[in-house]
Design a protein that fits this description.
Blueprint lengths: L1 E6 L4 E8 L6 E6 L4 H16 L8 E7 L3 H18 L3 E5 H13 L3 E7 L5 E9 L2 E11 L11 E4 L2 H4 L9 E3 L4 H13 L22 H15 L3
Parallel strand pairs: 1-4, 4-5, 6-9, 9-10
Antiparallel strand pairs: 1-2, 2-3, 6-7, 7-8
């Protein structure tokens, strides 16, 4: 299959193109975040040109639907919808946490993964996946949690980008794997999801936000600082 995949849910922009079973995958990484809205489409067009693939030749467009940065998710979804609608292509929206789990499997052989992404505001996005029979099964659906609320199933490793900020408050894990959602992981996940009929018309592809707010009020920040001070015994 010829597929285009991209993810802008974190501070890293990731794009990849597959050209069929016997051709190497081409990929590109760059700065994400606020820059993704201006750099994603040029990066896609450049990679398609490098791959020698026309947009209309693709079988589907794949994007990381979230959870993640609000701006990044809106950017990825809008671009997927626009390209898919314009070229009359189906769009496949894939969970970013599942892409993290797939990256841990592909790079390190982990098949029981608790995927964690830093959600800011002292919270993490969390989901658990198990790789059985050649495909992933969701054991814990994506959720927004405080680090101390995270429960690590027995035999699972933690993968994601939450270690720097939250390692001291997360459960002790048998292993850690630092990872971000990668477009190449989306490409590996896509065939099974497409075969399962999860592609959608472009207009129906939507982000997965989970969180319904992007900032805390002054009162909420003060209450959080007070709770942290009480927990640590600091004045």
């Amino acid at each position: 299959m010829k597929l285009l995949a991209f993810d802008t849910s974190t501070e890293t922009l990731s794009v990849a193109v597959s050209r069929g079973a016997h051709a190497p995958v081409l990929s590109h990484e760059g700065a994400g975040g606020a820059q993704a809205s201006t750099t994603l489409i040029p990066a896609i067009l450049a990679l398609l040109q490098q791959a020698g693939v026309q947009l209309a030749e693709l079988d589907a467009i794949v994007f990381g639907r979230g959870p993640g940065s609000f701006t990044g998710l809106r950017t990825a979804c809008a671009v997927a919808q626009g390209l898919g609608f314009g070229a009359q292509l189906p769009v496949l929206a894939v969970d970013t946490l599942l892409a993290v789990a797939e990256e841990a499997r592909h790079a390190a052989g982990h098949t029981r993964v608790l995927a964690l992404l830093d959600a800011r505001m002292d919270e993490v996005y969390c989901a658990a996946y198990a790789f059985d029979g050649g495909q992933w099964a969701t054991r814990q659906a994506p959720a927004l949690l405080r680090p101390q609320e995270v429960e690590l199933p027995a035999g699972y490793v933690i993968a994601g980008n939450a270690r720097p900020a939250f390692a001291a408050r997360l459960p002790a894990a048998a292993g850690w794997f630092d990872a971000l959602p990668q477009a190449t992981a989306l490409l590996r996940l896509a065939p099974a999801q497409l075969a399962a009929g999860r592609a959608q018309p472009a207009a129906q592809a939507l982000p997965l936000y989970i969180r319904d707010k992007v900032a805390q009020t002054t009162e909420e920040r003060a209450a959080q600082r007070a709770a942290q001070a009480a927990a640590t015994g600091s004045p």
